[in-house]
């Protein structure tokens, strides 16, 4: 089932951080679209919940030095 969820992101210092995270999210299995807003420190992700694994994506983003927090 397709869902849209917002996530908080901490650790972003600039707009290119947001672009990097957005590109990573858009390349994940099950993600239909991802938008990361530097100003609000939020990501909006449209995904297929049968394919998208939040804990896996969170782990990858943590390894990049950021924190993705489910709202």
Note down, in words, how this protein is organized.
The protein is α+β, with helices and mostly antiparallel strands and about 70 residues long. The protein has a single domain, classed as Alpha-Beta Plaits (2-Layer Sandwich). It has two helices and four strands, in the order βαββαβ. The chain has a four-stranded antiparallel beta sheet with strand order 2-3-1-4. The longest helix is centred in the first third of the chain and has 12 residues. The chain is globular and about 35 Å long. It starts with a strand and ends with a strand. The model has no long low-confidence stretch (mean pLDDT about 95).
Please write out the topology:
Blueprint: E1 2-10, H1 15-26, E2 31-37, E3 42-48, H2 54-63, E4 67-70
Antiparallel strand pairs: 1-3, 1-4, 2-3
What descriptive keywords fit this protein?
71 residues, alpha+beta, Alpha-Beta Plaits, 4-stranded antiparallel beta sheet, 2 helices
